[in-house]
Amino acid sequence: MWQFWLIVSGICFVIEMATVGFLVFWFGIGALFALITSLITDNIIIQTTVFIISSTILLFLTKPFVKKITNKDKIQTNAYSIIGKTGIVTREINPKKGIGQIKVESEIWSAKTEVDNDDIIPEGTEVAIVDLDGVKAVVKPAVVEVTK
Prior knowledge:
Elements: H1 2-19, H2 24-40, H3 44-69, E1 86-94, E2 99-104, E3 107-113, E4 126-133, E5 136-141
Parallel strand pairs: 3-5
Antiparallel strand pairs: 1-2, 1-4, 2-3, 4-5
Helix pairs in contact: 1-2, 2-3
């Protein structure tokens, strides 16, 4: 019977590699525990019970850890890394015409103003990037601090 549990474990690991959801992995580990149990006893009910209980316990004990590692809200792509940075307007931002461009570091981005702001931002103005809307940077004029 140990061969059955080895095959189940292998199938679970292959499925995990294909889905990367880190869920089926624990069933593969549970199948390995059932494999060890099958070397001790021939009772299929005990083996299946070990499989189900160990898989469930591993799943629930590691869920917070896995959630912390795979939290998609905290993973920033290159695009989202510009939020909070400042840029220079290279082409007038006009919300009524739907045009505008900024330069952030060495990249050129299409830009628009915040939803409630219909002000035109002239070329050469320093702007702060507050969000992304699709492929456009959402900007507002940067606040210039005056020093005495």
